[in-house]
């Protein structure tokens, strides 16, 4: 036996089907064996009443035995040839040789590769023919032979039918497993598209917010303070380049590009992110608590995006408020907190894909995210992301 694996479902299957030429070789070998047994048999020792094998009997035996080669492609035709040859030779009071044994194999083939109904009807016809031959008193065919042949044929049909049902059951399992694999693949494609959409949203939303703010500042200060306007344009240029680079990286995932940065951003880029929004005019205080360590890629990216989205919202809705970013490394988790300073409450970001995407990221990483008004009137975003135990 061999097995085939689809998804998580192991499916035992029969040995791989032999090529078609094997049936031709089997037919030739069966014909040669049947004729050899027929010509070398001691008829007197078997049954003195048996007649010597005629040329017709030899030809019929060879053709009938060769019918076993049709066991897979045309099993019922093969059975007719083998059983018909046995009946014809036996009716002529001549030795049937190996034809009865090949008939049993042909019964099995009809049940295994054909239908149950065809196998039962064929068995009834053959057994009825044996009973008729016994009634005419042909040699080498006692009552016990008829009964034994009937029992063996019934057993062959039962075994073949069981094999056919098993093969059908395995085919159904394979079809169901392949259908589940297709559904799983489609779900994976949808999830990947959603992930890429979230990445693009985070990149574009953050970058466009910085660009919009700095464009407004630059336009306002262009005549009064050219140096400040120039700094705003510099922030716009740097932010645009970073956005284009990250966008190419994300789009490259769709095309399967091997070039470009493959590792997504993480907390290692936190200082760069904070510096970017500082240059846009937002006061940002970054605090790291606990011993920093390498994080799972999904957790690292989720933490970075939480900070990025929170700073983007703060820049859009409360640009004059100081923001504190606190990263705390716990033994089994990472806590990310972004909160505005006290004072008038900053209006929360309108419902959209920002916080919704962050919650999905947190859930995908096995954690959770909460966002809402803080006790001092500000707005706070807190994410708890599991990282596993710290190695000893």
Compact overview of the structure:
With 392 residues, the chain is α+β, with helices and mostly antiparallel strands. The protein is 61% helix and 11% strand.
Oligomeric assembly: single chain
Q: What is the residue-mean pLDDT, rounded to a whole number?
A: 77
* Main sheet record: 5 strands, mixed
- Strand percentage: 5-15%
- Global structural class: alpha+beta
Shape: rod-shaped
Helical coverage, percent range: 55-70%
Tell me the count of domains.
Answer: 2
Helices and strands, in N-to-C order?
EEHHHHHHHHHEHEEHEE
Strands ordered across the widest β-sheet: 3-4-5-7-6
Number of helical stretches of at least 4 residues:
11
Low-confidence stretches: 1-15, 343-351
User: N- to C-terminal separation?
Assistant: 46 Å
From the alpha carbons, calculate the radius of gyration and give it in angstroms.
41 Å
**How many strand units?**
7
Q: Can you describe what's shown?
A:
Helices cover 61% and strands 11% of the residues. It is α+β, with helices and mostly antiparallel strands and 392 residues long. It has two domains: 179 residues, no CATH class; 113 residues, Histidine kinase-like ATPase, C-terminal domain (Heat Shock Protein 90), CATH 3.30.565. Strands 3-4-5-7-6 form a five-stranded mixed beta sheet. The protein has a two-stranded antiparallel ribbon with strand order 1-2. β4 and β5 form a beta hairpin. α7 runs antiparallel to α8. The radius of gyration is 41 Å and the shape is rod-shaped. The N terminus is likely disordered.
